[in-house]
Amino acid sequence: MKQAPIKELITFDDFEKLDIRVGTITVVSEVKKSKKLMKLTVDFGDHVRSILAGIKQERENPYEIEGKQALFVVNLPDQKMAGEISQGMLFDIGYADKLTPCLAMPETSVPNGSRAG
After folding, report:
1. Exposure letters 42-51 (e unless 16+ CB within 10 A, then b)
2. How far is it between the farthest Cα atoms of the chain?
3. What average pLDDT does this structure show over 47-61?
4. Cα 47 to Cα 5, 50, 84, distances in angstroms
5. How far are the Cα atoms of 16, 48, 71, 92, 115 from residue 43, in angstroms, in the given order?
6. pLDDT tens, 80-103?
7. What is the DSSP string of 4-51?
8. What is the DSSP pairing of strand 89-90 with strand 92-93?
9. Which CATH architecture describes the domain 12-103?
10. Of residues 110, 26, 109, 106, the one with CA closest to residue 66
């Protein structure tokens, strides 16, 4: 793999604006109006969100991530896609580098809602 150049520097204050949290993917379901999106129902401990992720064609079996913990950006504005609302973003690894994406996840189970960073 050819390494991509590092993006331009940001300040620590810029980084602090991101709210990245651990959530458990409790349900993976199809988004009927999309060839790419799957709907993830994610438990963040004190609340549950619907997050759309473009994993339908990236994974042989997109349902295999059900029950797993992963990292999510939770302070993005709601986004309407394919007739559904996404309340955050899956923080995965590989897609930007044209690799088979994998989940960014804690090495041990942690409470849902735990913050990264």
Report:
1. bbbeeeebbb
2. 41
3. 94
4. 37, 10, 19
5. 23, 5, 12, 17, 14
6. 999 999 999 999 998 888 888 899
7. PPPPPP--HHHHHT--EEEEEEEEEEE-TT-SS-EEEEEE-SS-EEEE
8. unpaired
9. Beta Barrel (2.40)
10. 26
pTM of the model: 0.92
Q: How far apart are CA 52 and CA 23, in angstroms?
A: 14
Q: List Cα–Cα distances, 18 to 13, 15, 22, in angstroms.
A: 9, 6, 13
Percent of the chain whose predicted confidence (pLDDT) is above 90: 85
- Spell out the long-range contacts of 77-81 with Cβ–Cβ below 8 A and sequence spacing 24 or more: 79/52, 81/31, 81/34, 81/37, 81/52
pLDDT score of 40 more than 90: yes
Task: Please state the domain extents for the chain.
Answer: 12-103
Q: What would the two tokens of residue 94 be? A: 């590989």
Collapsing DSSP states into helix, strand and coil, what is residue 64? helix
Q: For tokens 């473009």, what's the residue?
A: 54
**Beta pairing partners, 20:** 73
